[in-house]
Fold:
Amino acid sequence: MVQKTVYFIEGDGIGPEVWNAARPVLDKALEKAYSGEHGIEWKELPAGEKSFKDNGEYLPQSTIDTLAKASLAMKGPLATPVSGGFRSLNVTLRQVLDLYACIRPVRYFQGIESPLKRPDLVDMVVFRENTEDVYAGIEWAAGASEVQKLISFLREEMKVNVSENAAVGLKPVTKNGCQRLVRKAVQFAIDQKRPGVTLVHKGNIMKFTEGAFRTWGYELAESEFADVTISEEKAADNETRVIINDRIADAMFQEVLMRPEQYSVIATTNLNGDYLSDALAAQVGGLGLAPGVNMSDKLAFFEPTHGTAPTIAGKDMANPGSLILSGAMLLEHAGWGEAARLIHNAVEKVIAGKKVTVDLASQIQGANQVGCREFGELIGMNL
Ligand code: NAI
Structure:
């Protein structure tokens, strides 16, 4: 039997219940797809509130050390502890493990209410840079002594006119940071036989940061993928190579609404990616079925995009779909595409059958509400 180790963190709030619903689905999909010849060896790692109760630490060093050597891991949502010295456990994990690419596929499941006329045309995968940009949190409050120092330097040495009353944030963007993200997006498009990669940026205004993302993105495609990619201007009518193009971020928000069928893989900077991935999730009916992964060059760490949903935790009301679909991404990534396909088909069938958790029931006419556990069981039965 071929077994791969997957480290997992159950997570807080609804974490344990969505795990209990999701894990059997993943195991069963593998068993069904490969007649029991492939499987996952699950190894739990302590983190979050459960870990704090057991050993007084929210994020033990042993968990970080194990993940630093791992290649596959999965987690439920983690609450941000009020004490313990962490800005957020999630942000800490992303930083210490250098999980620089946040990848979120967005597709439509038939039957869910959507604000679009043709949500079925949406099938995109967003690659968002995860470590740089204004989002890195390097900023100073207006009036703080640090900001005054910085503003004096900018006004006197750099001769730029920044108001003395300003709050200031920095937007660091590096060539390496942009190119490793674009590399992942292009490689994904090639592996998955996707038609194109769109570089999304605000380079018309922020030329040396956002504009550089565009320039470095094209350069990377030309230098490392010359034989398998082609720019939009040079592409033939029935192009078989992956087409690389770029769009300015504000125009892209119109494009994904009006011409979603023209876009497939999106690579973008941190803040653009944050906005765009939530907007896209809304186009297909919300975050309830939105999976994701954060990746370094070594580790693929899969997680649902939602948080701990404290108000419904422990009530068997949570939708395990996002974690189940994150698991399907893991299976695909690990080379078990057939098992992933079974899960997608099963989720489609269950949603079409209109027996869904409360969050989806409110978006599907004539739906019957079921609990978290039953929803997971239904998906398992339809594999
Ligand atoms: P949230 O995603 O937990 O909840 C937002 C809304 O969506 C709530 O109404 C909630 O009930 C609902 N919801 C979320 N997941 C659901 C599911 N699977 N099924 C049904 N309904 C669901 O976001 P919020 O309230 O901002 O954050 C709560 C906690 O989660 C915070 O401590 C936050 O730091 C943490 N968080 C953790 C994340 C992670 O681990 N990656 C991501 C986002 C938030």
